[in-house]
Amino acid sequence: MPGHLITLLTDFGHADAYVGVMKGVILGIDPSATVVDLTHDVPPQDILQGAFLLGTAWQAFPAGTIHVAVVDPGVGTDRRALLVQGGGHTFLAPDNGLLSFVLPGDGGKGDPFQPYTGPVPEGYTAHSLTNQRYWRHPVSTTFHGRDIFAPVAAHLSTGAPADDFGEGVSTLVRLAVTEPRWDREELAGLVMHIDRFGNVVTNIPEALTKGGQVLTMELGGRTLQGLATTYGTGTGLVAIIGSGGTVEVAIRDGSAAEVLGVKVGDEVRIRRG
């Protein structure tokens, strides 16, 4: 069906015309498409943060949505451009780990956030975007968002089948993130994101905080007791389950990240009792 919903996530910012040009290419091919900006404020070349933000957002959209994600420090090199389908959605992105958090976990091991090559998950399909018939020409070596990903998204929106865009592939690049699990009375998680408000978002899911016992969190040299129910609870740092379903640390009218002096990748420890 023409006129699909297309989302855009990039590190392009808003000072330049890059985002607008991508939209122009899409609408020039499919004027009936609806284009939604997820964000264009991913820190430059920060694949991890792009992957994390895409992972928090895609499920809010209906089945059939086409998601275009471009955080691409390897643009113009031999890195592949991918079309991945699964869960009723289609994802277009460079093969650099940007789709790590939209795919089911595969138990990949390694240093946190480092890239590795893993199999395409069961129930998903992946194609390399090699059919130049669907590209915009001439193709810039620095702007595949405009010349490859945007036109492919638009052609998908008008009904072109995934098989037309290139050969199927069996592996893709992912980022290693060890899932937190209880080891006796303690678990270790990671800071995944610092949002615009300075809230410290971890990868510890709400389900791991259940059990009726008081939890003690250690982060940035501070100790927090228990879980608050709102950002406004208390007068200092609080741990809370955020909208993404994981533990966050916040402080009312301030930046928890600045108070704690923490960054993405720092360890978070939680103990029972």
Q: What is the spatial order of strands in the main beta sheet?
A: 12-11-15-9-10-14-13
Give the termini distance in whole angstroms. 55 Å
State the domain count. Answer: 2
Shape: elongated
Low-pLDDT runs of 5+ residues are none
* Major β-sheet profile: 7 strands, antiparallel
CATH architecture of the largest domain: 3-Layer(aba) Sandwich
CATH topology of the largest domain: Rossmann fold
Separate helix tally: 4
Portion of residues within helices: 10-25%
* Rounded radius of gyration (Å): 20 Å
- Total strands: the figure is 15
The first-level CATH class name of the largest domain: Alpha Beta
Classification by helices and strands: alpha+beta
Question: Mean of the pLDDT scores?
Answer: 93
Description of the structure:
The protein is 15% helix and 31% strand. It is an alpha+beta fold and 273 residues long. The protein has two domains: 5-175, Rossmann fold, CATH 3.40.50; 186-272, Bacterial fluorinating enzyme like (Elongation Factor Tu (Ef-tu), domain 3). Strands 12-11-15-9-10-14-13 form a seven-stranded antiparallel sheet. It has a six-stranded mixed sheet with strand order 2-1-3-5-4-7, with helices on both faces. It has a two-stranded antiparallel ribbon with strand order 6-8. β4 and β5 form a beta hairpin. α1 (18-29) packs parallel to α3. It is elongated, with a radius of gyration of 20 Å. The protein starts with a strand and ends with a strand. The mean pLDDT is 93.
